[in-house]
């Protein structure tokens, strides 16, 4: 049984570390996913919405801490209970998403790996089995000996490397885990810290995780998995399957029909509904609240399908004009113009905008705020550039900063900056000359 226990610890510990780290790389994005779950039409927990960001950071840290503790065998009675409660909670969420078709992307691995609701639920069921083995065997799991550390930790690194390089093509989780394991192992074996081993195996991973999340919150995710990452060609990625001559996905409407006399119920897709001419048979009626639309044939879906830029005053669409511009274009992303950060960096933004436009570079703002609020802000900060409107969720996807900057060249993203890192124009010249 010991071998199954160790395998379970390896799988659970490694996966929890990777899952927590990927989400910790983008806690803002994870907080958006939590907000979706707390919406009135999902779990109806709106009172938690103001706390989604600290909750996101905390959940990521807890995942990493539990993963490390499971691998080192520290406080396994407490850890096994926490692992069990977390996996039961996650399994409930993924089942809810799959069965009721709510929040169709669970955000289990952030934007690094997209799973369907049923795939996410299946993953959690498998993980639940491994967690149950740990839970059942918790009384026999003690803090690792040095020999056990030398067996489990390198094996965990191998598992993390397989997932990191083979699935998400990102080596950072490997380097992070090696450094964290080495630090915890070194401190764990210090004689003077032997009585504080719990602080070492729990406190160090928690501190490192929180510092990592704090860093990306003050700057930007160190790896951008979204379709607006540096190097992405927005002009090409916005094209539809028809424009690219690729096979388009096919969706059908499914009706639930009930026979008026016999009470028989059957489901039929829209193609069959028309071809069989069952609609002519008045003994069958569609159940109004049991009509769904499902994809029945896979096809190409544009990575970007909701990116538009329209004038706040007259609604003129400038999207194609901007994406096809062979020159450089700055996009100031400020989905909420009333956020205090916009005022705090206005002087830096104005200086960059003025210098950029003097050198024939376009500089425009994108926001989802109302026209009146935008005009009030522009006059307050003396902004010499125009704002255009873009969907709020799109802007939040483009950049995890409000405000923040994105630089395009011929439709390709060549730079992104958090509002804490607004560049001087000289930095832009260096970037351009080196690109």
Task: Record keyword descriptors for this entry.
52% helix, Glutaredoxin, 9 strands, 435 residues, alpha+beta, three-stranded antiparallel sheet, single chain
Commentary on this structure:
With 435 residues, the chain is α+β, with helices and mostly antiparallel strands. The protein folds into three domains: 2-218, no CATH class; 250-297, no CATH class; 310-434, Glutaredoxin (3-Layer(aba) Sandwich), CATH 3.40.30.10. It has 17 helices and nine strands. It has helices spanning 2-24, 27-37, 52-72, 76-100, 117-136, 146-166, 172-188, 197-218, 234-237, 241-244, 270-275, 319-323, 340-344, 346-358, 371-381, 392-398, 425-434; strands at 250-259, 265-269, 284-297, 310-311, 328-333, 362-367, 387-389, 404-409, 412-418. The strands form two sheets. It has a six-stranded mixed β-sheet. Helix 15 (371-381) links the parallel strand 6 (362-367) and strand 7 (387-389). The mean pLDDT is 92.
Topology record:
Elements: H1 2-24, H2 27-37, H3 52-72, H4 76-100, H5 117-136, H6 146-166, H7 172-188, H8 197-218, H9 234-237, H10 241-244, E1 250-259, E2 265-269, H11 270-275, E3 284-297, E4 310-311, H12 319-323, E5 328-333, H13 340-344, H14 346-358, E6 362-367, H15 371-381, E7 387-389, H16 392-398, E8 404-409, E9 412-418, H17 425-434
Parallel strand pairs: 5-6, 6-7
Antiparallel strand pairs: 1-2, 1-3, 4-7, 5-8, 8-9
Helix pairs in contact: 1-3, 1-5, 1-6, 2-3, 3-8, 4-5, 6-7, 7-8
Strand content: 5-15%
Going by helix content, strand content and strand pairing, the class is alpha+beta
- The SSE order reads HHHHHHHHHHEEHEEHEHHEHEHEEH
Q: Looking across the biggest beta sheet, what order are the strands in?
A: 4-7-6-5-8-9
Average pLDDT figure = 92
